[in-house]
Every structure is written in structure tokens, then in C-alpha cells.
Amino acid sequence: MLVKFRVRGVLRFVSHAEMLKVFQRACARAGIEIQHSQGFNPHPKLSLPLPRPVGVESDDELLCVHVHKSKVAQEHKDTDEEATYDLCSLIKTRLSAQLPEGCELLSESFAQTTKSVQPCSVTYIVPVQPECINDKLRARVENLLASESLTIERRIDTKKSKIKMLDIRPFLESIEFDNKDIVVRCRVTPAGSVRVEEILKLLEIDVEELAAPVRRTNLQWQAA
Questions:
Q1: Fewer CB within a 10 Å sphere, N or C end of the chain?
Q2: How far apart are CA 208 and CA 213, in angstroms?
Q3: Are 129 and 211 within 8 A, CB to CB?
Q4: If DSSP states are collapsed to H, E and C, what string results for the chain?
Q5: Is 199 exposed, middle or buried (0-12, 13-18, 19+ CB in 10 A)?
Q6: Average pLDDT of span 83-110
Q7: What is this structure's pTM?
Q8: Is the pLDDT of residue 173 over 90?
């Protein structure tokens, strides 16, 4: 089952692992039984294919969860398309009632294929203070887009402080101004993508200059 949802407010500080637990516990309280993997140490089959950076809000998150559809459908004896829609509505109603403030379900659907989904692009909305939108920032954006490469230092192991050099220019599709917001469209590939803190560093924008939390939106997916 594919569940699209929105993250707002203080819930944006919940980590990737914690968000998975939020949905796991919400499903349990809602009476929605999740399938588990086989083996010596079975674990619930649910995932967030594109981890959300801590502190970032989102309009367009995706949860993939394998539910025991037949058990949820015991109350619905029909097997036509209308019954399937009713089943989605039932799950949405039950699950919504168990989620914390700041997490809003947008849609639910049963996947038509067993293939997993992978993100291919994402957009970040960076709202900045009005005085920060100036000629200096616009020139900086033009220089970034005109660059053939943008090599940065990325920490890959916080415990051992390992650093690697990475060219993130291939991940940047566009950077545009929309009133007080900076709209950054990014590619997501098997090799990774650009991180929010790296975007802010490239733009030379401090957290104190943000007018609101950075927001992730317009996630695009493709079958793996």
C-alpha cells in the first residue's frame, strides 16, 4: 500500500527511524496488521523510500507498507473496485485518528505492481527573509548554475569523522526565485542527491535568515 502524507510543525524534528515507529504504532492502534518479513528476526514491512531531513517540513512524503489486506477487508465482503476504494477509505480513517498532530494523510492506494518505487527528483522551498533577496544572492545563484562542477566536502561517518569530496552539480536541476522563496529542484539518483544543508551552504544562507522552515515538495517516483 502507498500512503502519501504531509509533515508540519514540530513533527519535522522527528527522525527517519522515529517516523517509521510512528506509523508502525499508529497501524497497531488502528487495527491495521502489517506484514512481517520471514526468517529468524522478522521485521515489519514498511519503509519511507526517501528519508526526510530532520527539521524539514514536507508536502509530499510517501510511505510503503505491506498490510494484510484480507484481514482489514473482513468488514467488506465485496471484491469490486468500489469495495477496494472503501477499503482505502477505511484504512485512511482509522490511521488518521491515530497519527500525531502535524502528520496529515493525503491519499492511500494499493500498488498495482510488486516492484518497489524509487525517488528520481525532489523540490525544496527555501523561504528567506525579504532583505536577503538581493542582487548579491541572485548573482550567486547565476554563478552556481553556470558552474560545470560544485565540489564539496561531505561527512560520511559522523563517528569517525570521515570526509569525501563530492561534485553535487549533477544533482542540481534548477534554482529559481518565487517571491520570497528560493525553489531548488534536485535530481535523486542511486548515487545520492544534494542535501539541504549543502544547498544552504552553496547559497550562503544561515538558518537565522530563513523566514520559515525549509519545505520539501513535488517528489517524483519511478518503479525500480
A1: C
A2: 11
A3: yes
A4: CEEEEEECHHHHHCCHHHHHHHHHHHHHHHCCCECECCCCCCCECEECCCCCCCCCEEEEEEEEECECHHHHHHHCCCCCHHHHHHHHHHHHHHHHCCCCCCEEEEEEECCCCCCCEEEEEEEEEEEECHHHCCHHHHHHHHHHHHCCCCEEEEEEECCCCEEEEEECHHHEEEEEEECCEEEEEEECECCECCCHHHHHHHHCCCHHHECCCCEEEEEEEEEC
A5: buried
A6: 86
A7: 0.88
A8: yes
Q: Which CATH number fits domain 117-223: 3.40.960, 2.60.120, 3.15.20, 3.30.70?
A: 3.30.70
- CA 182 from centre of chain: 19
Q: Read off the amino acid at residue 166.
A: L
* Predicted confidence (pLDDT) per residue in 62-93, tens digit: 999 888 766 665 555 544 555 555 778 888 88
> CB–CB of 22/100 below 8 Å?
yes
> For 10-65, what is each residue's pLDDT tens digit?
999 999 999 999 999 999 999 888 988 888 888 889 999 999 999 999 999 999 98
**Would you say how long the chain is, in residues?**
224
